[in-house]
Write a structure and sequence with these properties.
There is one protein chain. Strands 1-2-3-4-5-6 form a six-stranded mixed beta sheet, sandwiched between helices. Strands 7-8 form a two-stranded antiparallel ribbon. Helix 4 packs across helix 5. A hairpin with a 5-residue loop joins strand 2 and strand 3. The protein starts with 16 loop residues before the first helix and ends with a helix. It has one domain. The protein is an alpha+beta fold. The protein has six helices and eight strands; from the N terminus they run αβαββααβαββββα.
Length: 246
């Protein structure tokens, strides 16, 4: 079955794009777990931008207790004085709201569940603003630096940006396969950094996508000399069938 356009009519009148994005990671992870070596395990990770995860919190256990500030010091209370810092050198508006994440992560359980690969399925929020695109490519660059292979799958037709090209630009490189014109807005790319002692090579396997064509198979690197097939087409079709996306 051909690749569908999940972001424009007539399909998006019947099925929201996030149905596919929410379901596909689990199907990919299930497929990988059938074929991964025993020491590796894959799992989906879906994080919506409206979800707030708090790692460290501080509570005021008595809601009626006021903060012990300068006024309390005047009354002889034992408290920490309030410090008034100088004016900031930069004071601008900035939106740091979370982005949606749809991904599959692969871990090496033989090395204390070390992350070795990440499959990133691009959402519209990853492409809608310059800050979002910058945050995404910085995340991918950090993963590559940590020797985590990264696969980018971008089916978003409504945002004319190519985050794989942006990633290469951040790394000071370019892909001749992207051509001289504006890179395609839909594409796939598998990336890995391999080497020792700070020196190494960036290797990528990229392909432009087109509505009506089948999705390719990419290498998913687990270690320097170990890769498995990431078969996008059968998992995509299985997800569409399960969700009744024609």
């Amino acid at each position: 079955m051909p690749l569908r356009d999940h972001f424009q009519p007539p399909l998006d009148n019947k099925h929201s794009w996030d149905q596919l994005h929410g379901g596909w990671p689990m199907v990919i992870a299930t497929d990988l777990n059938r074929r991964l070596p025993a020491r590796y395990v894959a799992g989906p990770n879906v994080h919506l931008g409206t979800f707030a995860q708090i790692d460290v919190v501080a509570f005021n256990q008595n809601s009626d207790e006021k903060f012990a500030g300068a006024a309390d010091l005047d009354q002889g209370s034992i408290a920490t004085a309030v410090w008034a810092p100088p004016a900031p050198t930069l004071d601008v508006d900035l939106d740091l709201s979370d982005q949606d994440e749809y991904e599959v992560r692969v871990y090496d359980i033989g090395r204390d569940r070390q992350l070795v690969a990440a499959i990133e399925i691009i959402s519209p929020s990853n492409k809608d603003r310059g800050e979002s695109r910058g945050a995404f490519v910085a995340k991918c660059a950090a993963l590559l630096k940590a020797r985590v292979s990264v696969v980018i799958v971008d089916l978003v037709t409504t945002k004319q940006f190519n985050l794989y090209a942006d990633l290469l630009e951040l790394l000071g490189r370019s892909d001749p396969g992207l051509g001289r014109d504006k890179p395609s807005a839909i594409y796939v790319a598998a990336c890995r950094w391999t080497g020792t002692n700070g020196a190494g090579r960036l290797q990528t396997w990229s392909q432009t996508l087109a509505i009506g064509q089948t999705l390719p198979t990419l290498p998913l690197w687990l270690a320097d000399k170990l890769a498995v097939k990431l078969e996008l087409e059968p998992t995509y079709e299985e997800t569409c069938r399960a969700l009744r996306i024609a």
